[in-house]
């Protein structure tokens, strides 16, 4: 069984797209592993945001979302990147093996490089902190979205360069790109994203959640006319959360006519409540009891350290910093 590892940024509140596109598939995958490693990449967040209050709140909510969705802390290792500061030491060693042109070519840097005065050095070496996250735990398979593919290639390149120069030290990981995962649309029909302000937060209070779902943009087809499920955002979201037979039923009603978007939105709201009801309860429990989340993360951090320490020792020895 391979060792899976993946990191999640804590740059905002978790939304339906994050749950269906990242959290649920990762938890599904962990069923085929003895111990998967999941961590909150809160040091990466510092490259874009310097707001301690928001960082704390988002970290708590992201952790609560993973726990509410069923992460098993007894089996899997769940921790905050910032609580294992040795990762910064490893990132430094890797920086010294990372050629400048490789880093200058990273999308995470290049996208911002038109305005260099707004780029901090942390953003420039972001891929090497990510490489350290992975290599620190001898991870073999790293499930990520397509946007992270290049960072995984850099991780492999730097691990191979290190192994070539200093002798075999790192496990060279594979990316696992989830091509089959659907892109969840937001309330405006574009990809759901924090940065578009179109996200649905399934952990929100019931009234706000309902209001949000009622705000989904639909076309002007009159009530009596048949509707096209293929182009409708409400239908796409319904398909993402409801059981297959309910989806078929809704499709039939769309095609039949005399079925309004208001009714479709109500059906979606009910399906979301049905699917996420238990998770919503758990989420509230965790957010209202942050000390429980803290304890669970500490447990994970102890387990994480028991793996990272010997790996770091191996690296120090290879470099001549320890005997
Ligand atoms: P955002 O676009 O809201 O900033 P992130 O880039 O932080 O989201 O994504 C975190 C994870 O959630 C990634 O693995 C990404 O692939 C997944 N994800 C984000 N939005 C969606 C979406 N609309 N549909 C499916 N997966 C998504
Ligand atoms: N950069 C990743 C993202 O923005 C998060 C991340 C940090 C990560 N370290 C990682 C993902 C290690 C996988 C493995 O989504």
Describe the structure.
- With 323 residues, this protein is mainly alpha-helical.
- The chain folds into two domains: 5-183 and 290-319, 3-Layer(aba) Sandwich (Rossmann fold), CATH 3.40.50.620; 194-284, Tyrosyl-Transfer RNA Synthetase (Orthogonal Bundle).
- 54% of the residues lie in helices and 6% in strands.
- α9 (149-166) links the parallel β4 and β5.
- α8 packs across α9 (149-166).
- The radius of gyration is 22 Å and the shape is elongated.
- The two termini are 32 Å apart.
- The chain binds adenosine-5'-diphosphate and tryptophan (TRP).
What is the third-level CATH name, the topology of the largest domain? Answer: Rossmann fold
Rounded to an integer, what's the Rg over CA atoms? 22 Å
Q: What oligomeric state best describes the polypeptide chains here?
A: single chain
CATH architecture of the largest domain: 3-Layer(aba) Sandwich
* Bound heterogens, unique: adenosine-5'-diphosphate, tryptophan
Number of domains: 2
> Count of DSSP helices?
14
What's the total number of strands? 5
Structural class of the secondary elements?
mainly alpha
């Amino acid at each position: 069984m391979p060792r899976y590892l993946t990191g999640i940024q804590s740059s905002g509140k978790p939304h339906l797209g994050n749950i269906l596109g990242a959290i649920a598939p990762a938890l599904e995958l962990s069923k085929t592993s003895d111990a998967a490693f999941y961590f909150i990449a809160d040091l990466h967040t510092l490259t874009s945001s310097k707001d301690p209050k928001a960082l704390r709140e988002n970290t708590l909510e992201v952790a609560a979302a993973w726990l509410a969705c069923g992460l098993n802390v007894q089996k899997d290792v769940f921790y905050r990147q910032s609580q294992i500061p040795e990762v910064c030491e490893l990132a430094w060693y890797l920086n010294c093996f990372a050629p400048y042109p490789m880093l200058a070519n990273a999308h995470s840097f290049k996208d911002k490089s038109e305005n260099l005065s707004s780029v901090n050095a942390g953003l420039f070496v972001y891929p090497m902190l990510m490489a350290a996250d992975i290599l620190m735990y001898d991870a073999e398979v790293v499930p990520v979205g397509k946007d992270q593919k290049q960072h995984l290639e850099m991780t492999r390149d730097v691990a191979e360069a290190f192994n070539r120069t200093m002798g075999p030290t790192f496990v060279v990981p594979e990316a696992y790109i989830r091509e089959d995962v659907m892109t969840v649309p937001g309330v405006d029909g574009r990809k759901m994203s924090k940065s578009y302000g179109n996200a649905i937060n399934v952990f929100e209070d019931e009234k706000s959640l309902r209001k949000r779902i009622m705000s989904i943009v639909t076309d002007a087809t009159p009530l009596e006319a048949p509707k096209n499920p293929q182009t409708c955002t409400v239908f796409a979201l319904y398909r993402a959360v409801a059981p297959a037979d309910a989806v078929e039923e809704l499709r039939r009603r769309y095609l039949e006519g005399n079925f309004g978007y208001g009714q479709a939105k109500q059906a979606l709201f009910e399906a979301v409540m049905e699917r996420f009801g238990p998770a919503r309860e758990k989420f509230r429990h965790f957010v209202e009891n942050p000390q429980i989340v803290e304890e669970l993360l500490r447990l994970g951090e102890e387990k994480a350290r028991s793996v990272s320490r010997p790996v770091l020792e191996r690296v120090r020895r290879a470099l001549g910093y320890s005997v």
